[in-house]
Amino acid sequence: MSVGIVGAGQLGRMLALAGYPLGIHCLFLDRAADTPAGQVAETLIGELDDPTLLRELATRSTVLSFDWENVSVSALRAALKGLKTRAAPPLRALATGQDRLAEKRLFERLGIPTTRYAPVSSRGSLAAAMRRIGLPAVIKTRRMGYDGKGQRVVRSSTEAHAAFEALGAVPLLYEEWIGFEAEVSAIGARGRRGELALYPLSRNFHSDGILRLSLAPWEDPALERLAKRHLRALLAEFAYVGVLAIEFFVRGRRLIANELAPRVHNSGHWTIEGAQTSQFENHLRAISGLPLGATGARGYSAMINLIGEIPAAGKLLGFPGLHLHDYGKSARAGRKVGHCTLIETDAGRRDLRARQLVRELYPGLAAIP
Amino acid sequence: MSVGIVGAGQLGRMLALAGYPLGIHCLFLDRAADTPAGQVAETLIGELDDPTLLRELATRSTVLSFDWENVSVSALRAALKGLKTRAAPPLRALATGQDRLAEKRLFERLGIPTTRYAPVSSRGSLAAAMRRIGLPAVIKTRRMGYDGKGQRVVRSSTEAHAAFEALGAVPLLYEEWIGFEAEVSAIGARGRRGELALYPLSRNFHSDGILRLSLAPWEDPALERLAKRHLRALLAEFAYVGVLAIEFFVRGRRLIANELAPRVHNSGHWTIEGAQTSQFENHLRAISGLPLGATGARGYSAMINLIGEIPAAGKLLGFPGLHLHDYGKSARAGRKVGHCTLIETDAGRRDLRARQLVRELYPGLAAIP
User: Are strands A336-344 and B151-154 parallel, antiparallel or unpaired?
Assistant: First the structure.
């Protein structure tokens, strides 16, 4: 069985590694040979929207997927034309995930609480949005945002106008800035016959727009029930196949949807060692029409992103019980180059050891409790 | 970091997959391209003792290892000459593992109980061995045996002479045949500075000379202490680096060493999901000079070999909580093509579900309790 994947980053790498034991081979398309996934599986080299290469990828695969949501939906659609190869997740979910405005409107339509917002495309619509929604606010590009890129928090009209200029002549979204008590994410898989496999909730900690730490399971039964209800609504809406993630803010026992990702998600990396079946395996099982695997937690996990460079492997692996995931990337400030996971038998000890490891790895980082 | 591995079978495949998350790339040498490991990592194609290819493998690696013990020690030694690349496990351990007579003598020297034996190379020495050791017995080739190949159980002088003829004009070993209550194996890693990481005991069930089922941990503290003492003695004797396995017979609360394997071992495959660090990861950590990982069990595991062919993936993966490992081999009667692992929270439930799965997969198999 062969799965074609557009984009060969670390998500693709972990998909490929999860596929081999199942007898599933992933074939990638990306711009360079020495990508994280390209180091562990065959890659076609070229632009992500190259019609000839996309067609080759689709022809050589039984299902076509992606490890990054900013790939061209129309190019994927063209590549699949007349073939029996399916796209999974569905391209409609991909298109929605690419456009923050479409995402907001869908959240509203499904009754999933989200922040107040307004589309902005001119100084006039910016002024109107400011009046209606107020300050502080976040101004984001509607498209191509990830890891905090393409967005600015603004506290004044001057800052708002400066952000509008800086983000360029592209469609923007003006969003209410809200304080929150926590960030959590809900991740789950849906199979071809509608069967579901939903993971326990994870609590996430960001700094500079980049996820630093996820703790899972984050045991809050009421919030988890609510998050899973929203997740099920989205999965059903798209007749989804594969893994889907939603990030929420928690505010006064309410969940406020921040964004969705139509793919495996950084806040689900803990599932590799911390759940009975990883999100990567369940994504492949779902899109390949195989039965989904159990999602129960195995202990209490802390997943810590390695940003900029991998600390000396000896130092990291000397931390008892630590699982390292090196993405095979060169070092660069602010770049996700790997992650590591700790697993403990209770939540208190997990939190304690996670804090200790974060302090050791990132002594300068204040944002993690 | 690059590890060169001679032989690209399923052990190599699982080593390669364990290596990627650590940032370790395995490079293989084997006779064909489409081997289990060759499907997931780069392979040099040629004979396992080809001097030019072995030299290339050694030159491109920081450490040279093997996934099969019947590789030529002198060819490895020649390939390493003048290079800084180390061999691990040590070639002396490899040489001992290749020769059943050397293995027996070493067990005796270290005070590790083993079956009575005599080398046999002629009809005269066969008759002498029969008189001294008695019948029934097992006649084995001294070299190149695995999975029950190259050995015969004999119950009479006629059978003994027939086996002597059938096994050919090669050095043989005549061994006492003993009844036993159970088979267990002890597996552990030793690092470059002598640090140890020993796994819990596993209980093994063979049929037709092929391992079918391993249950681990097999909780018998007295036997485990004894097995680990023997394992430590062997690891120290060789100043070993990497993973070593010993198979024992259990008879009247005593352990009787059957054989050693200077490599990761089939009866340790449960450690992928069932231990904090897998035997594959610990082998790579040890031979690469990295700290060893914790070996504690995560729940109670049952590992079942898939022999002949992989059952339909849908059927197998529909078994809740099952982890599949497809080796990417074509189907062939008696061939190990994969394994699967179940993990439960107590030993009783593990044994029950393992029995159920074995019955489903191998309805004809009587030898597994």
Answer: unpaired
Q: Using an 8 Å Cβ cutoff, are B361 and B306 in contact?
A: yes
CA distance B142 to B96: 11
Chain A residues in contact with B291 (beta carbon < 8 A): 314, 317-318
Taking alpha carbons only, the member of B199, B276, B206 closest to residue B235 is B199
Q: What does the alpha-carbon distance between residue A345 and residue B359 come to, in Å, rounded to a whole number?
A: 33
State in words which class domain A2-87 has: alpha beta
Establish whether the linkage from the previous residue to B311 is cis, with ω within 30° of 0: no
Each residue's pLDDT expressed in tens, for chain B with a length of 369 residues: 899 999 999 999 999 999 999 999 999 999 999 999 999 999 999 999 999 999 999 999 999 999 998 899 999 999 999 999 999 999 999 999 999 999 999 999 999 999 999 999 999 999 999 999 999 999 999 987 666 677 889 999 999 999 998 887 789 999 999 999 999 999 999 999 999 999 999 999 998 888 999 999 999 999 999 999 999 999 999 999 999 999 999 999 999 999 999 999 999 999 999 999 999 999 999 999 999 999 999 999 999 999 999 998 778 999 999 999 999 999 999 999 999 999 999 999 999 999 999 988 887 765 556
When the candidates are 1.20.58.480, 3.30.360.10, 3.30.1490.20, 1.20.1560.10, the CATH number that belongs to A116-176 is 3.30.1490.20
- Kindly report the pTM of this predicted structure: 0.96
pLDDT of residue B167: 85
Per-residue model confidence as pLDDT tens digits over A52-103? 999 999 999 999 999 998 899 999 999 999 999 999 999 999 999 999 999 9
How does strand B242-251 pair with strand B182-190? antiparallel
Give the residue from A220, A286, A207, A216 showing the smallest Cα distance to A250.
A220
Q: Is the ipTM of this complex over 0.90?
A: yes
Q: Which CATH number fits domain B182-361: 3.40.50.12780, 3.30.470.20, 2.60.120.970, 2.50.20.10?
A: 3.30.470.20
**Residue B366 corresponds to which tokens in the numbers above?**
């009587």
Q: Give me the residues paired with residue B87 across strands.
A: B64
- Encoded tokens for B267: 């009866």
Asked if B313 lies within 8 A of A326 by C-beta distance, the reply is: no
Q: How far is CA B222 from the centre of its chain?
A: 23
pLDDT at A189: 98
Q: Note every long-range contact of A313-316, with CB atoms under 8 Å and residues 24 or more positions apart, other chains counting.
A: A313/B22, A313/B23, A313/B290, A314/B289, A314/B290, A314/B291, A316/A340
For residue A269, give the H/E element and its range.
none
pLDDT digits (tens, 9 = 90+) for A129-159: 999 999 999 999 998 766 667 788 999 999 9
Residue from the list B22, B290, B294 with its beta carbon closest to the beta carbon of A320: B294
Q: How many whole angstroms separate alpha carbon A30 and alpha carbon A33?
A: 7
d(CA B151, CA B270): 27
* CA dist list (Å): B10 to A140, B66, B280: 49, 12, 11
Size of interface A-B (CB pairs under 8 A): 76
Assess A299–B contact: CB distance below 8 Å, yes or no. Answer: yes
Question: In the prediction, which pLDDT does B368 show?
Answer: 59
Which chain B residue lies closest to A326 (C-alpha atoms)? B21
Question: Measured between CA atoms, how close is B273 to chain A, in angstroms?
Answer: 8
Sort out which chain B residues have CB atoms less than 8 A from A314's CB and list them. 289-291
Q: Locate the domains of chain B by residue range.
A: 2-87, 116-176, 182-361
Task: Please tell me if residue A75 touches chain B, with a CB cutoff of 8 Å.
Answer: no
Q: Which residue has the tokens 């390669």?
A: B16
Q: SS3 for B284?
A: helix
Distances from the Cα of B298 to the Cα of A270, B2, B13, B45, angstroms:
16, 29, 23, 38
